From TrEMBL:
Organism of this sequence: Ifrita kowaldi
Gene: Sema4c_1
Domain of life according to the entry: Eukaryota
Name of this protein: SEM4C protein
Species classification: Eukaryota, Metazoa, Chordata, Craniata, Vertebrata
Length: 59
């Protein structure tokens, strides 16, 4: 199935505190790069995120 071109509509994800969450991204080309954001800010690819007291914290 072909992948859509350009940015996708953001999706909200709700998880229970203490639960691991893995987000995946299928790229359609070896030249493509994923851009992960939180609250409008780009996250580094190696950044670890931890859910704490009703908000996401970047370590």
């Amino acid at each position: 199935r072909p992948l859509p071109a350009g940015p996708l509509t953001p999706k909200n994800v709700t998880v229970v505190a203490g639960t691991d969450l893995v987000l995946t991204c299928r790229l359609g080309s070896n030249l493509a790069r994923a851009l992960w954001t939180f609250e409008g800010r780009a996250l580094a690819a190696e950044q670890v995120l931890v859910l704490g007291e009703a908000r996401l914290r970047a370590l």
